[in-house]
Specification:
Elements (H helix, E strand, L loop, with lengths): L7 E2 L5 E4 L8 E3 H22 L8 H26 L2 H6 L14 H19 L3 H26 L13 E2 L7 E2 L2 H20 L8 H17 L9 E2 L2 E2 H24 L1
Parallel strand pairs: 1-4
Antiparallel strand pairs: 2-3, 4-5, 6-7
């Protein structure tokens, strides 16, 4: 094992811009900026694809409405999912923690459910095909996942298991033991890799639901693998980490969509 002095010690400040002392908020957090970056990339891609005629949206009003619905779904679903799946005791002790989103604590599984409900509402209100809309939503999701995992790393949360790998990181609040930077693994596997995939696939004329199925399976595989390097601080469910277990429904939905679109083509 390399000398512990050879490892990088995590000393990143979770606050990007500090406010003066005495203000209610400490400042602008990287966590919040990561969500803003994800929404900005999503809005850019949405506008680009709508103008190219690749989306079920009809005009700019539909575009802005969908972005707003996605924002509400991601934030509300992600926060409520975190509380329901991982922070029930913390919520019981301090219910106001639900609203302190700048401190971190967003469950991607809850975010997926929130976006799904937002998509259902939008598809019904605008009378567009839900599977085509689902493909669009899944094409927009990876950028937000990528920036969110980078923010997890900056915050020093969701750390990995102890490791002797040369790229291991020491998170001081977790002790002196070097650990896998599992947040960066997830940023690549759950965000960057799917983003590259959808940018290559979305311009093609695929059967409705195909891209969503591919994305869900790719994301699920990456999440399940990356969880092998992440500390199971939320415990285990049926021998799987909580993250792996709650990813299985997404994998099942992705497989169902792929099989459904394959039959429709045949």
């Amino acid at each position: 094992m390399s000398s512990i002095l050879a490892y990088w010690v995590h000393d990143l400040d979770p606050v990007a811009i500090h406010f003066p002392a005495g203000w209610a908020l400490r400042g602008v957090h990287w966590y919040g900026l990561s969500y803003a970056a994800g929404f900005m990339v999503a809005a850019y891609l949405l506008g680009r694809w709508r103008k190219a005629g690749l989306t079920p949206l009809r005009n700019g009003l539909d575009e802005s409405t969908l972005v707003t619905a996605i924002m509400v779904g991601v934030i509300a679903g992600g926060r409520l999912g975190h509380v329901a799946l991982y922070a029930r005791a913390e919520f019981a002790a301090d219910p106001m923690m639900l609203f302190r989103v700048w401190q971190g604590g967003m469950a991607s599984h809850g975010g997926f459910l929130g976006v799904l409900l937002a998509g259902l509402w939008f598809a019904r209100s605008r009378q567009v095909d839900f599977l085509s809309l689902g493909d669009l939503l899944c094409a927009l999701a990876p950028a937000g996942l990528f920036f969110g995992r980078l923010a997890n790393f900056v915050n020093g949360e969701l750390v990995g298991d102890p490791s002797s790998a040369p790229w291991a990181v020491i998170f001081p609040h977790e002790g002196a033991m070097p650990r896998h930077p599992s947040q960066l693994y997830e940023a690549f596997g759950e965000g960057l890799l799917p983003l590259i995939w959808v940018l290559l696939r979305y311009p093609r004329r695929l059967p409705p639901g195909r891209l969503a199925g591919e994305f869900l399976l790719l994301y699920s595989a990456a999440r399940i693998v990356c969880e092998c390097f992440r500390s199971a601080e939320d415990g285990y469910v049926l021998g799987l980490t909580a993250g792996q277990f709650w990813t299985l429904p997404l994998a099942g939905l992705g497989l169902f969509l792929l099989l459904r679109t394959r039959r429709s083509v045949e």
